């Protein structure tokens, strides 16, 4: 028994070292990717369910690695958060997305709101609000066209700082969205105190609408709650006609998902806007 225990320990350390090495490698490659322009942004439209018009787009990062091919953000964003490199990545994303939004406006395309994902590191970064302000001025995008998405997990890390940051963002006219809403374990009371504009109903509830009465009930309840609290709702990950039908019946105003369009290149997005 003793021997097995020791072997087990050995295996654990080997696996741990491997994962540390993998992380180190990934970190180096991400640094390189930033300098070598390997990152790009795709845009997924958000649709007004009354008018069928595109009212917003979510910027989603893509990494095209010369050897590995496409690397999913679910793989590299968490590592970038651990190593702190996310600050630089998020800042690049913010500038690139705002720049794109301003370019579309200048071309006279229909106005859309640009949604950008913010990691916890970036949210609590002391210069966030100054950065956002600086970028908006630099690229000449009016602040009302920018929405920042963060998760409940991010907001609850430091509730005092959270309300400061959200208020500061509100003061400069930037919108805030609560991403993956409903998947956290928090109480709902903060919703009435914090200046949040939009709830993004998590995809996991939308996908269960047809076969799971509980998911359907959760979606209805969140839509009802949002109405009372005067928050907008964007349903995420809509993939099927019956999900859309259910959302419309329950007065959801905006939806996003592969049913309407997968994330698009800037060029493809532009064609859709025209
Ligand atoms: P998220 O913010 O919840 O983004 C939505 C994800 O769902 C995106 O995955 C999107 O492509 C995918 N999606 C949209 N519609 C559908 C659908 O109908 N069906 C299915 N199955 N999926 C759909 P993606 O682009 O792989 O991003 C994954 C996560 O990585 C994001 O989740 C976000 O947390 C993070 N992420 C992506 N881009 C950025 C970024 O620029 N900065 C930061 N900090 N995080 C990012
Ligand atoms: Ca998001
Ligand atoms: Ca989400
Ligand atoms: Ca997510």
From TrEMBL:
All residue ranges annotated as the EAL domain in the record: 23-274
Highest taxon above the source species: Bacteria
Recorded coiled-coil stretches: none
Protein name (database record): EAL domain-containing protein
Organism in which the protein naturally occurs: Evansella alkalicola
């Amino acid at each position: 028994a003793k021997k097995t225990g020791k072997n087990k320990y050995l295996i654990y350390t080997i696996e741990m070292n491997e994962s540390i090495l993998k992380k180190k490698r990934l970190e180096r490659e991400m640094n390189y990717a930033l300098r070598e322009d390997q990152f790009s942004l795709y845009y997924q439209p958000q649709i007004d369910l009354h008018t069928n018009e595109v009212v917003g787009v979510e910027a989603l990062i893509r990494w095209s690695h010369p050897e590995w091919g496409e690397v999913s953000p679910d793989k590299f964003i968490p590592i970038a958060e651990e190593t702190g490199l996310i600050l630089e990545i998020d800042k690049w994303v913010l500038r690139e997305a705002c720049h794109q939004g301003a370019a579309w406006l200048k071309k006279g395309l229909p106005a859309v709101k640009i949604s950008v994902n913010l990691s916890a590191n970036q949210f609590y970064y002391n210069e966030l609000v100054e950065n956002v302000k600086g970028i908006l001025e630099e690229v000449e995008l009016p602040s009302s066209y920018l929405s920042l998405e963060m998760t409940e997990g991010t907001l609850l890390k430091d509730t005092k700082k959270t309300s400061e940051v959200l208020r500061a963002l509100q003061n400069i006219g930037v919108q805030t969205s609560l991403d993956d809403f409903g998947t956290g374990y928090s109480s709902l009371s903060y919703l009435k105190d914090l200046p949040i504009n939009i709830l993004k109903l998590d995809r996991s509830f939308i996908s269960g609408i047809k076969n799971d009465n509980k998911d359907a009930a959760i979606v209805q309840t969140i839509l009802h709650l949002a109405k009372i609290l005067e928050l907008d709702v964007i349903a995420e990950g809509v993939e099927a006609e019956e999900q859309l039908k259910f959302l419309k019946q329950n007065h959801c105003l905006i939806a996003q998902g592969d049913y309407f369009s997968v994330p698009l290149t800037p060029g493809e997005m532009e064609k859709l806007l025209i």
